[in-house]
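Example record

The entry below shows one chain as it appears in the dataset: sequence first, then structure tokens.
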Amino acid sequence: MKNRKLIVCSGPSGVGKSSVLKKILGEIPDSFFSVSATTRAPRPGEIPGVSYHYMDKQEFERMLAENALLEYNQYAGEYYGTPTKPIEQALLDQRTVFLDVDPNGAFAVRRNRPDAVLVYIAAPSMQEVRRRLESRGDTPPEKIEARLKQAQWENQQASNYDYIIINDDLDVCAKELLAIIAGSESAEHYTADKRISIFKEEM
């Protein structure tokens, strides 16, 4: 694909973002997925440089002072953020760059990079979000409720994105995202202003 862009994806936990992005990354061999930086310790099974770039708070705050982060936030006393340099280099190399961040991060990226394309990935319904979270079998009920509450807030931000795609079928969802990346005419069907009414009905 010739029309390379900075693609920022958001969506609630349980919506299947990882599955969609994994499929897309396989479709675009020279694509680049941004790995976030964090000050929290690695969890079992996580791989440094793949899951996150792990660093101490002093190093993270140095990056903040040097304006070396495209966006950042703090949760439970730990920092999370997106290093700017790898993204800028990938864009210079004409690669398609993908970020997976929450709405606050997406809007911060938009402020710093007005050329960013914001895509909100939604589930067909909140009931489906619940079903997917419960089917994992590794999430306590209280955390499921907290994630559903967070999902409702994230859904309310969808109208501020450029596009909305609904992950009811993985192949269809990936095809829609590819159309957006390519800038094809069919992408107009997925703009937020055209999809928001359907999106609200499905929520």
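Notes for this example: The chain has a mean pLDDT of 91. The first strand starts at residue 6 and ends at 10.
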